[in-house]
Model the fold of this input.
Amino acid sequence: MNIKFKMPKFGRKLSKGDIWKELFLTFIATTLSIVLTFGTAYYLDNKAKKATGRQMAMMVIHDMETSVDDLRNMAKNDVMLYEIVKAVIENPNKIDSLSEDSLYQVVSYLMNDTGKEVCYRYDDANERVFLSSQDSWKNIDNPSFTDAVQKFYLIRHEFFDEINYSQIWRIPINGEMMYEYQVNHIEQITDIRELLKHFIGGKEVKYYLSYSSGRQYHANRVADDFEDISNYCKFTMGITDEELEEYVKSRERTGDRVKERKLLGKWTMRSTDELYTGIEFFTDHTCIQTSVNHYSYPLYDGRLEMVFENKGTWKLRGDSLDINLSPEYKFNMDRSKITPKPGAEEAVEKKLKDWDKQQKDQMKQLTKGKVIHVAYLATINSTGNKIELVRKNPGQNGNEKEVTLYLSREQ
Done:
């Protein structure tokens, strides 16, 4: 809009009435200019605050829906693993036929090897952001929404406090029990299947199984409450499922889509004093994943190197990187960097033979397994030397966890 105001003309002879007229027009022009300037600034500022408040609201609602999914998965996982463990108790030899995935799911279900009393955790980052910022409450400016959010966080705290300290949620095989087992079997290789066979028929495991349906009911009931609060919050803020889905997608975009020519070559997944893991992508869509583990042992100086090599294939589908690894792998034990301590030569030789046999037995078993398929959301940074890989992993007791890996290009 182009508005022209008549300004006073100085340097010419004016009557008394003309002077007052000119001053009045000047006043009006100045006042309108101030109103337009500050009014526009207020409007833009208010609009920005509302947009910020809406983003904050969607962040919290997404937190609610993630919690709903976590609890539903927790209940589903309890159903599935209850049936597996029940069958194994009735026939412990079934442990030998469990796939690697099932085996580690059962172990996660029954064993708490963290040494910590609190086993069930959740991500409270969004909660802290929301509750610590008074500005976020002002920007949302919806007391009903704010009350509902506070109710959600209160219920979530109460639920996790209960399952962390309730007897029926206590994971039956704790760190102290495993420590005692390992101390009493120090001369043997600690095989996870043998460990499971030792504990699977214990009274603690049977007690834990007997309350499986109660845990499922409780988790689903709280998930229902969270879902009701989430739906109410979306309704009162006028947020659609489509709008929320777009918000979630925008949060996941952290780089550029990976192109094939930028993916080719060797990448490091992890490199520490104890472990190196890397992967190389080839032009024919094959790949090789290599892991090098360094093992110390009280009876020798230096560190033993165990090298594992898996071959596979890869494919890019839009933002997704699909990797299929063969269950078979190559294994090599490099003992050139260790020196047995005086008098321990025979014991070291026996230990190395045991480790070698364990790996070969495991290799034979894995040849019967299925191809390991992993799908990642893949993005690459502007330098082309760092790739972010994101995937959903089943966490403890069915909570789906987002796992992020970073690949660094090897020169």
Summary: The first strand starts at residue 111 and ends at 112. The longest helix spans residues 16-90. The radius of gyration is 32 Å.
